[in-house]
Design brief:
elongated, D-amino Acid Aminotransferase, Chain A, domain 1, EC 2.7.9.1, Dna Ligase, domain 1, binds magnesium ion, 35 helices, Glucose Oxidase, domain 1, alpha/beta, ATP_grasp_subdomain_1, magnesium, 8-stranded parallel barrel, 878 residues, 4 domains, binds phosphoenolpyruvate, metal-binding
């Protein structure tokens, strides 16, 4: 027969899937001899059985539970429902993973009109006995029949007002009895039945209510948000009650073995005398700091310190402990690994290594990479945030928090920023033309576009907060208004954005800077010793690269040259290059651009100081650079001395129906080889200049959007010829590589051929995802949320690599590439290079590096180290 119920002495901390986290730890503490009130756990398997049988608690489970109730009666010497010496119990849910929004607790179960008198006799305390009974009715009503707690609280406030009391402690036993009558009436009116007097009925109803709570909407949402498996179920813990509300030598509290905000190794917590569990959390009375317990009950305090030390040593992590003191006797009701801030997580992990309690690998594995994001960006002041109202929610495209005044185009944003305002650029979507406005803004908000849209990618690169694809707002860029369901905002109004959650607030919320201090550097040193993947930075400017190097980048994995083309002094030449109708005309424009690009590349090489710099040749569709309005056309006509009509016609001719699939990437070099040749010359000439300054240089020249061997072979030949000409002229040869991006499915399946022509592959997983799924990078957010809600896709494939599909193509490309070119260098430069789950996948494939935006580098480094440790651990298991 299956066993559905475990007494605390039958379990262990390893059994958390069966007993839930709380149950497993209660069992563990019982077995190491801590003062845990006796009890038992009904397993998660029982919960599954209950759900499988359409919310029916089987006779087997019930009978087994009754056997454990009898044992509990023997252990405590009390009887359930007894009018002389009643056994009272607590009933608490406990899932394998902590789910704070769902935890249901019922205390004092077993009380009824008779047993309350028994309790009074035993405790010699009528006041606390009736207080227990009224609490029980309230919690039972709330958990079992969902009668809102505030209705009971209201009844209590009314009574206090009538009696002219301010504190709960002023209520007498008779007052509580009066309140119990009111509570019972409330119970009848809300549930349509009498409050159950039979303790077994109370127990059965409570257990099934806890099981039912697994499926309640808030629990379902919580599990979805935290990726917790719906099938796990919750356990139910039944434990004999101890009473913290029996006078001034009793109390209850919560203690942390270290400070959960800072990580400092000091005992931390709070307690209330003469109170029961929920009083501490409810905030009705202000708890005392735990250190005061030393003055009032020194022995208990010392015992609590010993318990804390023992538990931390046992679990080898900071513990969050719930305790109750009954008439001077200490009981431990719960222990778990304590929740902590990112800063505390780092400090505690490193301290535990220093104290010889855990290994460096353990410390690295304990770091939650998502939490580290908090440390790298400012965040909202918590108190002000609590009062702010959410206007809308979009995609959390680039983390951090920002507050500022809104402007609807790049030009206005720049002007306002120059006036000294903090600016939030609000656009339907951004384009490369907005780059300066984005640079001058503190944050970017777009109504359209996904996680790899222009706004998202560029904002992440700049380390700026960005909320993208916020389609709950309507933006009118002409009227300069932003409209949501509840408000209309105008230019200059204040807005606050949280790029880590996607929330948009109407108010101005103060920011707090987080300092990365303490042990962060030391931990990152261990990370470097452990990880195998190299972490590079996606950087388009010396400044991006400096930030990247500060965070530990080991080279540039992607420099998108087109981002350099939009500066005001360049755009006329870029436009001239595009609309040129002859090669001669194009070469004139290119010669101007070459001088500018040389300065750009020299700046990056200087900062890189010998580290590899991967420069991608021009990639985006040319028409992105063209003038759009008549005024822009007229201006260009004047600048380059061509009739406006002619320019208009050329712009029209260059327009494409599907620009993302059109004349872009290496296709530009097939039609206009001189563009890439100019860029290659600029790269090599600036490399020589930096080399002449005595600084090492290592350029990698990357050809984008390659689909076939023939493309890369032809382009490589042309580039090499141009480069050799420079070397001959300068009488100098510098090392450089030519390679390709792998971002088209055809390139993956013909990678063996392409690898014969390439020294490296850099996986452009943004385009590869777009082309594999056929999902537009810029529009997929309009439906991807539904794919996730309906579990068609587990996550957004533009954020975390789709291992089954896109990942299989990457695997094929890696295998085929190595087949024909064993020395092929391989890395990733798509956005997935900064995503921990994807990094683990790339590590397993044996790639050499990942590259990501500057602010994600610490996360990528930690994720790379975690991937190495996991691999080692798995080897040991085999
Ligand atoms: C990619 O496609 O993954 C990539 C890095 O290039 P881009 O995002 O510039 O298209
Ligand atoms: Mg691409």
């Amino acid at each position: 027969m299956r066993k559905f119920v475990y007494h605390f002495n039958e379990g262990s901390k390893e059994m958390k899937y069966l007993l839930g986290g709380k149950g497993a730890n209660l069992a563990e503490m019982t077995n190491i001899g801590l003062p845990v009130p006796p009890g038992f756990t009904i397993t998660t398997e029982a919960c599954k059985d209950y759900n499988e049988h359409h919310q029916y608690l089987s006779d087997d489970i019930y009978t087994e539970m009754m056997t454990h109730m009898e044992i509990l009666e023997q252990e405590t010497g009390k009887k359930f429902g007894d009018a002389e010496n009643p056994l009272l119990i607590s009933v608490r849910s406990g899932a394998p993973f902590s789910m704070p929004g769902m935890m249901d607790t019922i205390l004092n179960l077993g009380l009824n009109d008779q047993s309350v008198q028994g309790l009074e006799r035993v405790t010699q305390d009528a006041r606390s006995s009736y207080d227990c009974y009224r609490r029980f009715i309230q919690m039972f009503g709330d958990v079992v029949f969902r009668i809102p707690g505030y209705r009971f609280e209201q009844a209590l406030s009314d009574l206090k007002e009538r009696k002219n009391y301010t504190l709960d402690t002023e209520l007498t036993a008779a007052d509580w009895q009066e309140l119990i009558a009111v509570y019972k009436a409330l119970y009848v009116s809300a549930s349509g039945r009498e409050f159950p007097q039979n303790p077994l009925e109370q127990l059965r109803l409570s257990i099934t209510a806890v099981f039912d709570s697994w499926e309640n909407p808030r629990a379902v949402v919580y599990r979805r948000l935290h990726h917790i498996d719906n099938q796990l179920g919750t356990a139910v813990n039944i434990q004999s009650m101890v009473f913290g509300n029996t006078g001034d030598t009793s109390g209850t509290g919560i203690a942390f073995t270290r400070n959960p905000s800072t990580g400092d190794n000091v005992f931390f917590g709070e307690y209330l005398l003469n109170a029961q569990g929920e009083d501490v959390v409810a905030g009705i009375r202000t708890p005392e700091p735990i250190s005061h317990l030393e003055d009032t009950m020194p022995d208990v305090y010392q015992q609590l310190l010993d318990v804390a030390a023992l538990l931390e040593l046992h679990y080898l992590d900071m513990q969050d402990i719930e305790f109750t003191i009954e008439k001077g006797e200490l009981f431990v009701l719960q222990t778990r690994n304590g929740k902590r801030t990112a800063q505390a997580a780092i400090n505690i992990a490193v301290d535990l290594v220093h104290e010889g309690k855990i290994s460096k690998d353990d410390a690295i594995m304990r770091i939650d990479t998502a939490q580290i994001d908090q440390l790298l960006h400012p965040s909202f002041d918590e108190t002000s945030l609590a009062n702010a109202s959410v206007l809308a929610t979009g995609l959390p495209a680039s983390p951090g928090a920002a507050t500022g005044q809104i402007y609807f185009n790049a030009e206005d944003a720049v002007t306002a920023a120059e006036r000294g305002e903090k600016v939030i650029l609000v656009r339907n979507e951004t384009s490369p033309e907005d780059i300066e406005g984005m640079a001058k803004s503190v944050a970017i908000l777009t109504a359209h576009g996904g996680m790899t849209s222009h706004a998202a990618v560029v904002a992440r690169g700049m380390g700026k907060c960005c909320v993208a694809g916020c389609d709950a707002i309507a933006i009118d860029e002409t009227k300069k208004t932003l409209q949501s369901a509840t408000a209309t905002l105008h230019e200059g109004d204040f807005l606050s954005l949280n790029g880590s959650t996607g929330n948009v607030y109407v108010d101005q919320i103060p920011l707090v800077e987080t300092e990365i201090g303490g042990h962060f550097e030391e931990l990152m040193g261990w990370v470097n010793e452990t990880k195998k993947l190299v972490v590079r930075v996606n950087a388009d400017s010396p400044n991006d690269l400096e930030v990247g190097l500060h965070f530990g980048a080991e080279g540039v994995g992607l420099c998108r040259t087109e981002h350099m083309f939009f500066q005001e002094d360049r755009i006329p030449y870029v436009r001239q290059m595009i609309i040129a109708e002859s090669k001669e005309e194009r070469l004139i424009a290119l010669s101007h651009l070459k001088a500018m690009q040389k300065t750009d590349f020299a700046g990056i090489f200087r900062v890189a100081n010998g580290k590899p710099v991967n420069i991608r040749l021009l990639d985006p569709p040319l028409h992105e650079f063209l003038p759009k309005t008549d005024a822009d056309i007229a201006k260009l006509a004047q600048e380059i001395g061509k009739p406006a009509d002619e320019i208009k016609q050329r712009v029209h001719d260059l327009a494409e129906t599907n620009p993302m699939l059109g004349h872009r990437g290496c296709r530009l070099a097939i039609t206009f080889p001189e563009i890439y040749m100019m860029q290659a010359e600029a790269i090599i000439e600036s490399a020589i200049a930096i080399h002449d300054e005595g600084i090492a240089v290592y350029p990698e020249i990357m050809v984008p959007l390659v689909a076939s061997r023939e493309e890369i072979a032809l382009i490589k030949k042309q580039l090499k010829e141009a480069i050799q000409t420079i070397f001959r002229k300068e009488q100098l040869v510098l090392p450089f590589d030519i390679g390709t991006m792998i971002e088209i499915p055809r390139a993956c399946v013909t990678a063996d051929e392409i690898a014969e022509e390439a020294q490296f592959f850099s996986f452009g997983t943004n385009d590869l995802t777009q082309l594999t799924f056929g999902f537009s990078r810029d529009d997929a957010n309009k439906f991807l949320y539904a794919y996730q809600e309906q579990k068609i896709l587990p996550t957004d494939p533009f954020q975390s690599i789709d291992q089954k599909g896109v990942g299989a193509l990457v695997t094929t490309a890696v295998q085929r590439g190595r087949m024909t070119n064993p020395s092929l260098k391989m890395g990733v430069c798509g956005e997935h290079g900064g995503d921990p789950a994807s990094i683990q996948f790339f590590h397993k494939l044996g790639l050499q590096y990942v590259s990501c935006s500057p602010y994600r580098i610490p996360i990528a480094r930690i994720a790379a180290a975690q991937a190495s440790i996991l691999e080692e651990q798995q080897k040991v298991k085999i």
